[in-house]
Amino acid sequence: MAHPRARREDLDVTLHHCEIPVDEDVVRALVTEQCPQWAHLSLYRAGAGTDNTMYRLGTGLLVRLPRTADKAPSLRKEQRWLPRLAPLLACRIPEPVHSGEPTGVFPLPWSVYRWIEGDEVGPATVSDWAAFGTDLAAVVRELHGVDLMGATRTGELSWYRGGELRACAEWVGRALSDCRAIVGTEIDVDTLERLWRTALALPEPSGPQVWLHGDLRPTNLLARHGRLHAVIDFGGLSVGLPDAEHAPVWDLPPEARHACRHAIDIDDSTWVRARAWAIGVAASGIPYYQHSYPAFVAECRARLQAILTDERTS
């Protein structure tokens, strides 16, 4: 479920205050105590993200542990909803097989999933970016078309990215100012701020609320045989408006981005709001992770540059 070739620099860093220390001994103790049937399996660090760290268990399992207490509810959410969503989706998604309980060695819930074979999405693993964008569009359309099964935008299924842009105006404004102070003239933050304000001036979307993955960045997509194979990390799963769901297309090459937009038939207003979400999330990531997660900062910078390139060439 995680990328099998995780970058070493992403594995051993502390990203947040109050992060819970985890190492192989901690994970081995959790598995031995709560999953003795798997205690004999090999174990090694397999990946890390902004919210979780991951260990591969044997050849067929993945252990996922939240970095901080406020990330833990996302695992419970996945354990509850992914088994209900999986039969309704053609694309493979994570399959929880054990819900780990807090213990003395690790005070938070944790989870075990089936391992999903796949490669990190990139030029070495995707052979046709236009086809990849069409594949991604099919996943988005299918997820957004799934019945809500009684779920509502409350509690664990309410996340800012499924809400209205105006509710984020204050913190995005601060993020753009902080970003400008860091990047200087390397990135045209003035143009990004203008694009953000253009979206704020639009009417808010009035369409129905849908299921949202919440973070369809390339690092949460797996490729196989050159095509999209699986979507992982549903920690941002929520119910809400779909505009922000399209924001990560600016993390993909233009061929994929334009194919995805065409296949979903995204109208101009939705596209402008999606771009604004892409700006807000990336601009906030640069100051937050500037000293702790250089790979993530590089992703944010690349996204903002892609937005600016699109603006110049449109």
From TrEMBL:
Q: Which domain of life is it from?
A: Bacteria
CDD domains recorded: APH_ChoK_like_1
Gene3D superfamilies on file: 3.90.1200.10, Phosphorylase Kinase, domain 1 (3.30.200.20)
Residue stretches spanning the membrane: none
Name the InterPro entries on file. Answer: AGP_Transferase (IPR051678), Aminoglycoside_PTrfase (IPR002575), Kinase-like_dom_sf (IPR011009)
Outline the extent of the Aminoglycoside phosphotransferase domain: 46-277
The name on file for this protein is Phosphotransferase
Q: Which organism is it from?
A: Micromonospora andamanensis
